[in-house]
Amino acid sequence: MALVGVSGRLAGCYCLRAVRSLPFCSSLQVPALQLHISKTAMGACQKDFESAVNQVKLLKKDPGNEVKLKLYALYKQATEGPCNTPKPGLFDLINKAKWDAWNALGNLPKETARQNYVDLVSGLRSSSDSSSQVKSEADKKRAGYDTLVITSEDCITKIMLNRPAKKNALTTQMYREIMLALEAASKDDSTITVFTGNGDYYSSGNDLTNFTDIPPGGIEEKAKNSAILLRDFVDCFIDFPKPLVAVVNGPAVGIAVTILGLFDLVYASDRATFHTPFSHLGQTPEGCSSYTFPKIMGPAKAVEMLIFGKKLTAGEAYAQGLVTEVFPDSTFQKEVWTRLKAYSKLSQNAMHISKQIIRNHEKEKLHAINAEESRILQERWLSDECMNAVMDFFSRKAKL
Ligand SMILES: CCCC/C=C/CC(=O)SCCNC(=O)CCNC(=O)[C@H](O)C(C)(C)COP(=O)(O)OP(=O)(O)OC[C@H]1O[C@@H](n2cnc3c(N)ncnc32)[C@H](O)[C@@H]1OP(=O)(O)O
User: Fold this and answer.
1) Are the C-beta atoms of 69 and 98 separated by less than 8 Å?
2) Among 167, 198, 208, which residue has the most ligand 1 atoms within 8 Å of its CB, making it the best to mutate?
């Protein structure tokens, strides 16, 4: 049974190439795992586990060798406990790969292995269902999001900000949906996650109406809740495990710019601009930009942007290192997606591990900076300077 679309991605990976010939149920392209349930798998989620084992047989899409090894290992751990069988010989490649996967689970409790198996199958089902049922672009839209359009294709999950009439300004609901979308993308079978905007803007940053909708607890409560939301939001970007790409289709403002310092690739149309007008708004930097921007572009240029609100063209942002590459707007989408499709075929594990190695050096620092920036902004939002700037925008006295 050929592993369509899998062998290419795994090419060059000795260990996983070895499991190409993992046995499959011929019609369903899923591994013929031992689908009987032993008595030792009995427990709280036994029913779910049994059902997940059966669902594996019904998957319409080959989940790929890495996932099949995970399923195998979790199944063995859930039903037999830690691996204590002799290690297969060096040249028994398939059984060695399976043994390695099981053995890597160490002393993971059977209950946890069962739960992880159930969770993994549930993720596979949703991606398998969506990819097998989907025929048109509209069908590919992930349900449950009002402010985003989320699609998955070619191992790329695309998160598109979808309030074009408001220049994709980020409402409270949108921050929450983005966090959910990132959580889902971190677990789906995509290799790369992409952010972009619908319409002429990438995003005009925080929706200023977020500051006008005051809860019964008053403005202090609003500022406190907003600081928590901001901190949680930025934390999701700091912790996101897969390569994260911004496809900046047009102007970007405020937090839509600062967060770019936490992305792995930033592709920009030559129509894009990058503007962080915090001092115009009585605000201070967020998204860890007080750390990432000086690191990326040097303190002098970071100060121009973050303190003096200098708006950069795409070319200038490229020169400062904030943008990876600039494309003419006329060919932007075509060139960028061709590039990303090629990248998405690279080894998923190698890319994720490389990202972790790079990010882990400073993860703790980034979380501390995010906490500090959010705390300072909580105070700033209560200042007259900030409140006046928001009122000026809505009374049409000021626009950036
Ligand atoms: C909880 C987390 C907090 C995180 C904090 C983050 C800080 C920041 O992000 S600061 C940056 C905040 N953004 C702004 O200050 C931008 C404000 N917008 C503008 O200056 C202009 O709208 C803009 C230059 C972006 C575009 O100008 P135009 O091309 O002239 O378009 P319009 O102004 O007519 O915009 C169309 C429509 O969209 C509304 N809009 C646009 N951006 C925002 C926004 N950020 N907040 C709220 N509303 C926005 C604009 O009001 C228009 O609405 P209508 O008049 O109803 O059509």
Assistant:
1) yes
2) 167
Q: How remote is the CA of residue 171 from the centroid of ligand 1, in Å?
A: 11
Ligand 1 pocket test, pick from 204, 260, 290, 385 with the greatest ligand atom count within 8 Å of Cβ, gives 204
* Backbone CA torsion sign across 392, 393, 399, 400: positive
Query: How far away, in angstroms, is 228 Cα from ligand 1 center?
Result: 22
Q: Compute, in angstroms, the gap from residue 193 CA to the centroid of ligand 1.
A: 26
pLDDT in tens, 322-339: 999 999 999 999 999 999
What span, in angstroms and rounded, lies between the C-alpha atoms of 43 and 5?
Answer: 37
ipTM of the shown complex:
0.99
Closest CA relative to residue 160, chosen from 235, 248, 232: 248
Angle at 295 between CA 290 and CA 296, to 5 degrees: 105
Average predicted confidence (pLDDT) for the chain: 85
What DSSP state is assigned to residue 86? Answer: P
Cα 252 off chain centre by:
19
Q: Rounded to the nearest whole angstrom, what is the distance from the C-alpha of residue 199 to the centroid of ligand 1?
A: 14
Q: Which tokens belong to 50? A: 């049994």
Q: Are strands 192-197 and 156-161 parallel, antiparallel or unpaired?
A: parallel
